Each structure stands twice: as structure tokens, then as C-alpha cells.
Amino acid sequence: MKTKQHLIKDREELLFLLAEAAELEHTAMCSYLYAAMSLKQSTEEGVTELELAKIEGWRKQIRIVAIQEMRHLNLVNNLLSAFGSAPHFFRANFPIPIGRFPANLEFTLAPFSESTIQHYMMIVRPLEADVLDGSAFRHLQHYHRAIHEEFLSPSAYDYPTVGHLYHKIANGIDSLAERLGHETLFIGHTDAQVGGSLFPLPGLFSVTDITSAHRAIESIVLEGEGALGHSEDSHFARFETIAKELNQLKTARPDFEPARLTAVNPVLQKSYGKSGQETNITHPLAMRVVDLGNCLYTLMLRTFTQVFSPNPFQQHIRTEMAKAATNIMYTLMSIADAATRLPIKKEGGELRACIGFEIVGSITQLSHLSACEVISERAFELVSAIRALEKEIALPGVADSLESVAQNLKMLRPSV
After folding, report:
1. Which domains does the chain have, with CATH numbers?
2. pTM for this one?
């Protein structure tokens, strides 16, 4: 599919499209993690030892892809920082509103299945490749995001693959560097960017010039989203391998089900205007566990945001904030696993709950003088909630882990 190229006209439009790229990477990461969370974890759930070994392999591969999506999100935020912007960790809550992305890119929190994996392959397909979508993804909404070149406001546009979006951004960087000048375009604070010394993500680096900007975009694209070809460890190839192995096991045993019957787009409150795209949680305990998970997710994002602050924190505080965000993420995974063991409906049944990756509060940057204290205070509140839940559901080590994070942040004080 050929699309007419419209050059990015100014910095405002460049930052606008990079923010969309950040939301896209973030949304995809949540979708992948959700599928991994739904996978069964023992032979007591109706799978054989051989099948469980395959399931563990799929969980590992999907988590690798999700971690790489986190790296992509961080690289996009480094690009935003390089051009003078704050990081963009916000994204729309599921179900994703119509028009947030092109109509052909549908993102849903769905359990692991043949259809879900086929959907992932469609999303990360190589440029110009023709890949069918999963049967459960019906694309009932049809719309066109038209470019309004006469507007001063930046506008979203349609792109057939994620790679096309990144190629437009790359071309825009080149044209703006030529028009504004290199030093004027790359005006951001280099110290606000994040590299491998803060997060143990291979291939994470700072963006300081045209060369490193193109390197960042190329690494994102070639790792799976829109590459002209794909290597054995690209996202597309990983999902393709999973699809083939799943098909083999289903052929050998047609009633093989690798995942728990997890709901699609679980929500604590009805999303008005999106009827039929979400599953309301009504089981009292499941509601409390999912609410806690969403609060942890929001706290994790707020902590990440401080690490990327355009007015950088002192290095020792950034390092501790990065560690705290990572530890909160692991706590979140434990809560998500607990949720998938609970019925989603008050009346019971086989349908399981899971966290909905809902942003339930502000994730904006905090004052340098109070950031550690504010995050620590919230973490202690969530520790108390976990302690209360432990009386009703097993959460081994979760409260202690989060309490350690809260204690460490409480002791941090910026030097004046």
C-alpha cells in the first residue's frame, strides 16, 4: 500500500507524532503483557508437562517482546527529550477510543489464543507485507484520519504499518534539521535522557544528533515493527514461531487450551460510548485486586516519569527512582497473576479477571524537593492495601518488596 508522503512542517508536529509513537509502543506493550499473564502455570490447569514447557517458552518470548517495547518507548522518550520535550508516558485506557490510532491498528487486552497471536503478527508485520488479522479482531469501526495541511495544529494521519509512522518521523527530522539547523533542532537537555546505566535494557542509548536519532528509529523498526525483512529474533518472527508451535499442539490435541479464560478489556467502571468492547468486573475480591494492580501501574508510570524529567534530578536520585520503577513493575506482575485466578463476575463462573492497565491518577512530574516523599507515601498506602488483601488471597512477598521500595525512597533527600 502506497501512501502520499507529507513532510513534517514544524517541531510541534514532530513532537505530536513522537507522542503518538510513544503511546503506540506503550499500548502494544500492555497488550503483550496481558496475553502473557493469561497463560496457565501448572499441569493442574489441564495441560501436560510437554504442553506446559511450550507455554513457558511462549511466556518467555512474549515477555522479551514486551521488554523490547519498553526499550522502544524509552528510545522514543529520548527522542522527545532531544527535541526539547518532556517524556510521554500517558496513553488512553482500554478499550482504546476510536481514532486514537489508524483503524487498521486495533489494540485490545485479550488472552493468549491463536487469534491473538495472529493479531500481533498483523500489527508488527514487515513493511508492505500482507498478513491476515486474527479472526476475533473484526475491525467493526471504519474511519479515516485525514491530514489538514492548512491547519497550524498538528493532525494525526493514517499509516498502514507502524514502520510507515517511523519513516515519516525520520524524514521529518532530516527536513527540520536542514531548515532549523542542527543545534536549534537538538535543543533538549542531554542529561534528561536515559541510557543503559539507569535501566538494564540492551540497546538503550542517548539521542544527541541526526546519526543517533536515525539509529534509534532504525533499531525500533528492525526489531520488529515494519522492517522490510525480519530476522529470527524480530517480533514478527517470534510471534510467527509461537503461532506454528501452537498450531502443532492444537493439531495433536484439539481441546488443548494454553490460557486461562481471561476476560477481554476488563474494567472496574463502565466505559461510556464503548459498549461491547469491555468486560465489567463485579466480583468483590477481584475488584479490589484489580484496583490495586491499576494503582501500582499508575505509580510505576509516575516513577518512570521522574527519571525522564526534562529538568533532571540528581544522578543518585534518578538511579534510585529507576530501581523503584522496576521493582514496582515486578510487584505489579504478582498482583496480575493473582487477579487471573479470580472470577470476574460476582456470581462466579469460568471467566477470569486481570488488571486492565488503567491509569487512575496523575503521572506528571513532581517537584524535585518532594518527589521521593510523594511516591514513597503512595507506596506505603499500597503496602497497607496489600497487607489487608493477604487475609483473603495469597500474595507471598509482595508487600515486603513494595515496602522496601517505599523505605528506600523515603530516605532519599535531594542536596541543595
Report:
1. 1-260 (1.20.1260.10), 261-416 (1.20.1260)
2. 0.94
